[in-house]
Specification:
The chain is an alpha+beta fold. It has helices spanning 47-61, 134-139, 141-153, 177-187, 207-217, and strands spanning 2-6, 9-13, 19-23, 79-81, 97-100, 107-111, 115-121, 126-132, 161-164, 174-175, 194-196, 203-205, 225-227, 252-257. The chain has one domain: CNF1/YfiH-like putative cysteine hydrolases, CATH 3.60.140. The two termini are 19 Å apart.
C-alpha cells in the first residue's frame, strides 16, 4: 500500500498493477460538512463542487473523466459490464459493481463506511470495482464481481488480484440481530465474523474479513487479496464516515482504469 500526495490531494494505491487510487477526503473544493474532496452528488453538497472534485480525481490519475462510468449504488450485488458511458445518463444501471476490459474507461464509485473492493485480472486485462456494505456483503457482491469477470471476459478466479479498501472496522460496526442472522446465514457461525461485547451483549460484524472470505470461497488465492485495514469511523481526518458523522458528510471516491 502506497500513500501519494499530489496537487493537494492525498490518495492510496494498492498492490494492483493497474492505474487506480482510493482517494481520501483531503483536498477538493467542498465546504464543511463535506470538506473537501466530496464526490457524492446526493448528500447536499453543491453540484458544481462535486463536479470539480471529480475532475480533480481524474486529473490526478491522468484519465479522461468524460469516459468515466459509475452506477446508482443500491446496496445489492448486481454487476454491470461497462463498454463506455451511456449517452444522456450519469450512471450505467442500478448496481453495486462494475467490470470492464475496455482501456480508457475509468470506473468510479463512492463510499462512506461501505467497502470499496477493487479487482484486476492481469492475464485477460480486466478490472472491476464493487461497493460492499453489509447488505452487499451478505449477498456476495465481491464473488458476484469475480463471476461477472469470468462470464464476460474469461477471467479465471485464481488470476484475480483484489484489494479491500477503507471501511468501517469491526470495532465500530455495531449491528442488530437481523444483521447477525444475515451474516451467519451467508457465512455460517464458525468464522468469528460476529463478535459480542461481554459487557452489554451488543453485536459487531467484521465486514473486512467477511468480504475476504467471500473472495476466497470464489477461488481467489489468499495471497492475491490485500486488506488495506483503514477504518473510516476512526479516520474521519482522511475519510468520510456516515456513522461517525451521523449522516452529515460526503463520499470519498475510488477510480481505476486500464
Amino acid at each position: 500500500m502506497e500513500i501519494i500526495e499530489k496537487d493537494g490531494l492525498r490518495y492510496y494505491r494498492t498492490h494492483l498493477d493497474v492505474n487506480h487510487a482510493v482517494f481520501t477526503r483531503q483536498g477538493g473544493v467542498s465546504p464543511a460538512p463535506f470538506a473537501g474532496l466530496n464526490v457524492g452528488g446526493t448528500v447536499g453538497d453543491d453540484v458544481a463542487n462535486v463536479r470539480a472534485n471529480h475532475a480533480l480525481m481524474y486529473a490526478a490519475l491522468g484519465v479522461n473523466g468524460a469516459r468515466a462510468v459509475t452506477t446508482w449504488q443500491v446496496h445489492g450485488a448486481d454487476v454491470v459490464a461497462a463498454h463506455g458511458p451511456v449517452p444522456n445518463r450519469k450512471w450505467l444501471a442500478r448496481a453495486d459493481a462494475i467490470v470492464t476490459n475496455q482501456s480508457g474507461v475509468p470506473l468510479t464509485m463512492r463510499f462512506a463506511d461501505c467497502l470499496p473492493i477493487l479487482f484486476h485480472d492481469p492475464v485477460q486485462q480486466v478490472i472491476g470495482m464493487a461497493h460492499a456494505g453489509w447488505r452487499g456483503t451478505v449477498q456476495g457482491v465481491g464473488s458476484a464481481t469475480v463471476r461477472a469477470m469470468q462470464a464476460c471476459y474469461g477471467t479465471r478466479p485464481q488470476d484475480v488480484r483484489a484489494a479491500i479498501g477503507p471501511g468501517i472496522s469491526v470495532a465500530h460496526f455495531q449491528v442488530g440481530a437481523e444483521v447477525v442472522a444475515a451474516v451467519e446465514a451467508r457465512f455460517g457461525a464458525g468464522h468469528a465474523l460476529v463478535r459480542r461485547d461481554p459487557h452489554d451483549g451488543t453485536f459487531y460484524v467484521d465486514l473486512w474479513e467477511a468480504n475476504r472470505l467471500d473472495l476466497l470461497n470464489t477461488g481467489v488465492p489468499a495471497a492475491n487479496i490485500e486488506v488495506m485495514g483503514l477504518c473510516t469511523y476512526q479516520r474521519t481526518d482522511e475519510f468520510y464516515s456516515h456513522r461517525a458523522e451521523k449522516g452529515r458528510t460526503g463520499r470519498f471516491g475510488a477510480v481505476m482504469c486500464l
